[in-house]
Design brief:
alpha/beta; Rossmann fold; 7-stranded parallel β-sheet; 42% helix
Length: 183
């Protein structure tokens, strides 16, 4: 199974650092233990780097691979000895490639780019452009305001567009890993 993990590539200054870092380590160990593959994009810094390192160090004992999608401006952030790397023309093309490669997509607390990834891939699912499992990890209520906005946005008031039925909500790490196991 190819697991795309969307998270911040910047060092956070917020209340959910420890919980998000713990989720990264748990996801990395799960990927290696089950022989799944990691899909990531953009910069390989902060959380991406922690996840990359967790999977890379376990590759000797598993069949796990790492697929990286990036854009030209971010190549300098990539580590050496990559399993697979594709440089895309634009960040939209990068999102499309990552979405195509993934079987399941996990969204951890992140920056504006992570939120944009979630909205983009949720909208694509609502438009029936893919049927990937979307898992939103809402550590310490990080995404509560975004989810409230979805409830109040008229775009989502149509009966056929039910965003809350198009993703799975995980409130803690144990639930997140259980959802991955059942995907």
């Amino acid at each position: 199974m190819n697991i795309l993990v969307c998270c911040s590539s910047r060092t956070p200054n917020n209340r959910i650092y420890d919980e998000t870092e713990e989720a990264i380590i748990s996801i990395g160990k799960y990927i290696v233990d089950k022989g799944h593959n990691l899909v990531i994009g953009g910069k390989i810094t902060w959380l991406h780097k922690k996840l990359y390192t967790e999977v890379k160090k376990g590759q000797n004992s598993s069949n796990s691979h790492i697929y990286i999608y990036t854009i030209q401006q971010l190549i300098k952030t990539l580590p050496n000895n990559l399993d697979y790397c594709e440089v895309c023309e634009t960040s939209i093309k990068m999102k499309e490639k990552m979405m195509q490669k993934a079987d399941v997509i996990v969204f951890l607390p992140g920056d504006l780019e992570t939120i944009a990834d979630f909205v983009y891939m949720l909208k694509a699912k609502l438009n029936k452009e893919h049927d990937k499992e979307l898992i939103l990890y809402n550590a310490s209520g990080y995404y509560d305001k975004l989810l409230e906005m979805f409830d109040e946005t008229e775009v989502f008031n149509f009966e056929e567009a039910k965003p809350w039925m198009s993703y799975i909500y995980a409130e803690n790490i144990k639930t997140l890993i259980t959802i991955l196991q059942n995907s």
